[in-house]
Amino acid sequence: MDRSAGFVSVGVGYEVRGGRARCVRKAVETIDVAILGASGYTGAELLRMLAVHPKAKIAAMTADRSAGKPIGEVFPQYGFGSQFAQSLPDLVKVAEVEDWSKYDLIFCCLPHATTQEIISGIPLETTKVVDLSADFRLSNIDTYTAWYGEHKAPYLQKEAVYGLVEHKRDEVRDARLVANPGCYPTAAQLALIPLLKNKSISSTDIIIDAKSGATGAGRSAKVGTLFCEVSDGMHAYGIAQHRHAPEIEQGLSEVTGEDVLVNFTPHLIPMNRGILETIFVKTSESPGALRQQLIEAYEDEPFVHVLPEGVSPHTRHVRGSNHCVMNVFPDRLPGRAIIVSVIDNVVKGASGQAIQNMNVMMGFDETMGLEGQPFFP
Amino acid sequence: MDRSAGFVSVGVGYEVRGGRARCVRKAVETIDVAILGASGYTGAELLRMLAVHPKAKIAAMTADRSAGKPIGEVFPQYGFGSQFAQSLPDLVKVAEVEDWSKYDLIFCCLPHATTQEIISGIPLETTKVVDLSADFRLSNIDTYTAWYGEHKAPYLQKEAVYGLVEHKRDEVRDARLVANPGCYPTAAQLALIPLLKNKSISSTDIIIDAKSGATGAGRSAKVGTLFCEVSDGMHAYGIAQHRHAPEIEQGLSEVTGEDVLVNFTPHLIPMNRGILETIFVKTSESPGALRQQLIEAYEDEPFVHVLPEGVSPHTRHVRGSNHCVMNVFPDRLPGRAIIVSVIDNVVKGASGQAIQNMNVMMGFDETMGLEGQPFFP
Amino acid sequence: MDRSAGFVSVGVGYEVRGGRARCVRKAVETIDVAILGASGYTGAELLRMLAVHPKAKIAAMTADRSAGKPIGEVFPQYGFGSQFAQSLPDLVKVAEVEDWSKYDLIFCCLPHATTQEIISGIPLETTKVVDLSADFRLSNIDTYTAWYGEHKAPYLQKEAVYGLVEHKRDEVRDARLVANPGCYPTAAQLALIPLLKNKSISSTDIIIDAKSGATGAGRSAKVGTLFCEVSDGMHAYGIAQHRHAPEIEQGLSEVTGEDVLVNFTPHLIPMNRGILETIFVKTSESPGALRQQLIEAYEDEPFVHVLPEGVSPHTRHVRGSNHCVMNVFPDRLPGRAIIVSVIDNVVKGASGQAIQNMNVMMGFDETMGLEGQPFFP
Amino acid sequence: MDRSAGFVSVGVGYEVRGGRARCVRKAVETIDVAILGASGYTGAELLRMLAVHPKAKIAAMTADRSAGKPIGEVFPQYGFGSQFAQSLPDLVKVAEVEDWSKYDLIFCCLPHATTQEIISGIPLETTKVVDLSADFRLSNIDTYTAWYGEHKAPYLQKEAVYGLVEHKRDEVRDARLVANPGCYPTAAQLALIPLLKNKSISSTDIIIDAKSGATGAGRSAKVGTLFCEVSDGMHAYGIAQHRHAPEIEQGLSEVTGEDVLVNFTPHLIPMNRGILETIFVKTSESPGALRQQLIEAYEDEPFVHVLPEGVSPHTRHVRGSNHCVMNVFPDRLPGRAIIVSVIDNVVKGASGQAIQNMNVMMGFDETMGLEGQPFFP
């Protein structure tokens, strides 16, 4: 780590009481982080959130097509308004990053499959990695290959920890490489894992009807995600063939100890941010009992919340924040219940969860830099 | 009927071949129709569609709050551009309509529960009625009372025919009072009735995840449907408690001969028009077999279509048109299939279907005035 | 013309009285039209509108990237619902069109600059052309070159008639090649030409603040027009450098007889369709007088309308229709007035106006196939 | 002030360098603030922003219709996620607030005209007020009466300071009652005041074409602001009759020393947040010179920024932040220039500017709690 680049700031940091910043007494150091693929939506969101993170300093950013440009040319919105902008380095090509060891932690926001070779070049003993791509999410190489194609760094798979903090906190704390969970799998697993752990719902009849805003489709130019193709319309896509299905199944199978299959049906909705999953489950227990189990599972979690009985989770409740909000409802069909789980796909489904992982990996307060309230309207 | 108001136009009318207007040889007469509640979304859509209907002349329109105004003041968009506007009568109060018998057919777009008394005052021997409210959809009075409150004209219930033309054509042909189906129930029943008829799917495990644009919430001023509350967000509502559940169940029970319960979970989506229903069913047959059954069930229907294998129905495919488009997909869960059904809730889910009912009731070509292509983008 | 492809339909056609289709007594023939570049937004809109045109039969459609495909694969919404779909030929490459003389009229929806060579290969003595690109809009070759680059068929420029029907009806009637006006210039010139003709406003101080929906940006994949980049935001673009400025100036200069310069400032608005232009003018007359002049200028026009005094034109008033709606308002600044003019950029600003031009060129009723009411909401 | 409610937190606060929170060395105290009218959009935004303000504690909130409810019932999004929610008092009726002196500062988010009597009951010697309504913006009582009706507390008008901090910093520092500027006037005056001060533009020919998102229309239920009425359409409103015109004119007249009239033409745009004003001015100087003057006027301002030459300001550049971004462009018309100014109407146009005013009034760092980066997408 380049000490000169860092700086000691006594008493820096937030304390969540009252949700308002207060001094943390102990002396701490900031760390230097790099963002690979800073010009996409998850990269942009990392910028927005790290700007108010008291301990993470953005020391490098890459974006091959925008290499050489100052941030103000790529994202005018981050190019003014505080010395934050001036503190940001110009964008460079990934290939131009010479010494990875200068950085304490790398956020990798590169496309699936392009990530493996780059990460295999990073010395994990000096530099931790949070990978926002899918490249290290599937621990079974065959499953990865079946859904994404050949894996170029299988040996790293053992190293990778699946960063669903609420259920992997200890592993994440000791991890050097964290695979940041997918957006859909985050909302689904947070709702289902506690109930499967308690054997309260059937593992053979889980139906996940998922709806996502268009940021989930990424920032590359495609006719299908043009404003005029998305607005005022909706459709299902990748029906029973979406790559997030095996990721969800892996997480649930880990809990049940046997192979779980799920119905996962995603839809593109004409909005920017937000995922809402309506999950239909078989259960011998009452919806109230399931709800109670989720309350207990997450009562100490800062980012997962069960709404009051009967209140329907809106994506607006979490927009721009790192929270996941859920609730359980009765079904007209006997022996069934309905779970609704919402997150902001760009935050808890990507960049916010990545920062949450960083906080745990670096021993920071888990909520540091993530206290922002939801954005409304 | 006020003959002077009508006029004979030899060879008027459309013929659908090629989707282009051609003369129908026989001499025909136009009819005089009235629209009660013309200032809401379904009333406005009736205006738009009847403007190009060759045989229906709008002879009266009511809108209590806008009574006395010309159409141009209520809907500037219909107040210019052709003598159509000038042909339209000024709006009046419902109470001011003196002689119902002057009209051949009444479209009733009034709110639920307000409709019964008005319709009970209409002489059905001279004047047919298509009611777009829910007041006559539920044939079982107790069910109606349980979901909507006391019914003020139960004797009319026997008279009322449920106007899902594709499955009630003969009854509609002879009907004097047609209950126009609800928007959600239309998309659901069209997808499910043929499969239940064939006993190809289980009737005890039907899950309907429905998504609708905001026109479905109507045109009355509510904070919950303000632009800033709806845009860039989504949520489920009326979970397991929506009034369209019993309507769907009635239609399906009629087919199976026993009481069917369904899971029906509607969501509000930030768009104007369109309903998409993702229906999860249990089946011992292949998705391909179910798809084939739907193709056969609707091969002669002008308004219901099964897309090519694997093509996902978009609400855009039907936006502004009277079509229902559907398809069947395999499920990762064995013994299950996924059906997707889309309509424009304002057209096939309301005003377009009402005109389709009128056409059948009056012996017009069923597609008359409904040939318009979908609106894109 | 391929007679076998055509067919005689006695009494076909619309008559606008009452805005409802009625038979036109004289025997007429349908014509065969081709659409070049059918897969973009203007091509799609031509399809939607020609589907209900009683005299124009779509005999060929080109779309290079979709060549060989049936319409249903490119636009599922046009691939079902009537024999219209079955009447449509598969898409072909432009280069594959062998005999242009088989078509009575060609709609050219190709990108600027690609059009000239193709059109120069069309025998205008047998086949008329309506070009929706900008290639033949600017009569002055130097101006064209300055804004669009080298012109490849300057000799055709003399032939081309600028198809703003309301002000060029006679020329269009005799034209073989019509340059369909740009979207912004249509709304601007319709508002300004009558007032400049009357010398009622200053020609040296015209400020046009224009706002357009995203369809105006076309259907090619660009990051800047992705849903997430356009929705919930707005910005001005091409400030004082937009190619529609010289087109507007040409039209106004023709009226005044001297070179007119205008301020033209377009903005991208998060919506699909619609252009609204707020035009600030200097005048020695009262706003009421200007308004009266516009009323008189357009009182016999089927597609241009002045709203009642004080009523603000909404793009919703014309959405999906071929109308232009305008009004004049007083300005707090003495000696000034404000004109607001709205159109649907895809209809009156492109495909609808192209059909209006076809109707005039072919001697059809000018409103034929264009009677559709605006789409709301 | 209720000391027990406050608490001393040594070293609390932000320092903007690097846009990251660092300790401010001096010991400081938090203050107790009350929000009157907390259930509207500006009230909600104050909640969101004060949640991360290190020195302002929300001690009371009023919302008459929601009185008695915890925040979680009114705004579920603020009802979880941190002890912030638990730190919030339940909502009460304004009339139920007994002792105003318990609060150091009141944010008044009540409707125009309802505010005067309430504020006249607040003891300004103990309790400062930032009023977000228009009630104290117009210093000339006659002007106020002409546009808003009778003024019920004219004597307070002398007391009120117009809180456009960038141009009133000293007055605001000493103020007890600040009238928070309107959203449109903020964007307009920030762009025009420096140029009028320098006599660089004509004061008799200022044309402001303003476009706003729907939050500007407030949160009360009106048909005109329903999702289906606003989305996919736009229109001008209050043309030459909008109440923000006299407010802008007051600010500009103060600078020029003579009565300035402006053209102010607002438009409703289908988006949530953001105002963009395209301002057309007469000038004898070059656009570059005007641009340079704005750069110099705001070079030390934390919230006002001139973009690089030729870069068009987007509302996205400021969405969710307290920044105003502007630029100057050449006009095709000689002797003219175009200025574009954007803000987030809910932040710099309302709640953010109110906090900026509070910071100055209380002697806090002006940017405290306002460091958040813009929200994208």
Structure, explained:
Chains A, B, C, D: This is N-acetyl-gamma-glutamyl-phosphate reductase. Chains A, B, C, D: It is an enzyme of class 1 (oxidoreductase). Chains A, B, C, D: One of its GO terms (biological process) is L-arginine biosynthetic process. Chains A, B, C, D: Keywords: Amino-acid biosynthesis, Arginine biosynthesis, NADP, Oxidoreductase. Chains A, B, C, D: Pathway: Amino-acid biosynthesis; L-arginine biosynthesis; N(2)-acetyl-L-ornithine from L-glutamate: step 3/4. Chain A is an alpha/beta fold and 377 residues long. Chain A has 2 domains: 13-181 and 349-362, Rossmann fold, CATH 3.40.50; 184-345, Dihydrodipicolinate Reductase, domain 2 (2-Layer Sandwich). Helix content of chain A is 29%, strand content 18%. Chain A is built from 12 helices and 14 strands. Chain A has helices spanning 41-50, 71-74, 83-87, 115-120, 141-148, 154-159, 165-173, 183-197, 227-230, 244-256, 287-298, 347-362; strands at residues 31-36, 56-62, 91-92, 105-108, 128-131, 160-162, 177-179, 207-212, 235-236, 263-268, 275-282, 304-306, 324-330, 336-343. In chain A, strands 3-2-1-4-5-7-6 form a 7-stranded parallel sheet. In chain A, strands 9-10-8-11-14-13-12 form a 7-stranded mixed sheet. In chain A, α4 links the parallel β4 and β5. The longest helix of chain A has 16 residues, at 347-362. Chains in contact: A-B, A-C, A-D, B-C, B-D, C-D. At the B-C interface, α1 and α3 of B face α1 and α3 of C.
